[in-house]
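A quick aside before the break. I want you to see a complete sequence-to-structure record at least once, exactly as it would be stored in a machine-readable document. Don't worry about memorizing anything.
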Amino acid sequence: GDPDEAATAKRELRKLFQGNRPITAYTADFLRISSQLDWDDAALKAAYRFGLSERVKDKLARIDEPLTRNHLVEVATRIDARLHARDLERKDLQERLPAFKKLLDQKIHEISALPADDINSEWKQFWISTRLYLPFILAEKKIVKAAPANAATLRDSLMAENLVWLVKEKYPKEKVIVWAASWHIGKSLDQKKIVSDKTYPLVMGDYIKNKIGSKLYSICFTAYDGEWAWYNMPSSHRIEVPSGDSFEEIFNQAGFNNAFMDFKYNRLATGGQWLEKKHNMRPYGYKEFSRRWPSIFDAVIFNNTMVRAVSTQTR
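That is the input. The structure line, written in tokens, reads:
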């Protein structure tokens, strides 16, 4: 092509990259300007990507790379449209938020005035918990910018309050079994005894241990190999072979396909002192940690081979 036209086109592209225009206008100008350049498709694709907004580029980084420039334009335009729709939805929610908070407070006030029977008490607990958790949800969904100061512990503290209410109010004479992630049901690390530059926030187990006491019995899960994935994950994650000094390796070497180990009582039994030492284990997303596990959980269930979670709709 004409060298002068190419030089002019490059200057126009540099100006285009400095702007903050809607993607439709950006795309139209980019296609017009780039038609004057003798670049291959890979170079045009890289240049087009460079001028996209950061949030569109962030979304593109999480998916498979589009094969051609035209494919990239198509995908980026769809992403931008979804982001714009979310912006409008977020703005609508922000405008309706004061009325929603007022309604929640009104419902809590109304139900608090009713006789404290089983149904009313349960709904009261639900509305209060929802109202307290609302700031975290709003920040997580980016409806508001600032997260609450107690964001790190808010969720687990409310989980604990709800569980204590179930145990003491709803089912005071029954055994309550809770299925939750191991991170929530155990106890956090003792900050005074562990030297670390990482702060471990309090979890549900910390909040309830002083309110339920010896009635609490927490069981974590781990596995030697296999794969893991949430039910809605398109692909699975391989579980790597554990280290030699791990409970998973101990169970595997002992020949167990499935096993249950009681930390709570075996740590006190004759010959059980070894359990009090630090060992590696992977109850948190199959990431290995060295801990004194009887201080965190009461027991562990071991499966030699783990299989991923599958949605009942896809079986």
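Two observations worth writing down. Confidence is low (pLDDT under 50) at residues 191-197. The longest strand covers residues 219-228. We'll return to this after the break.
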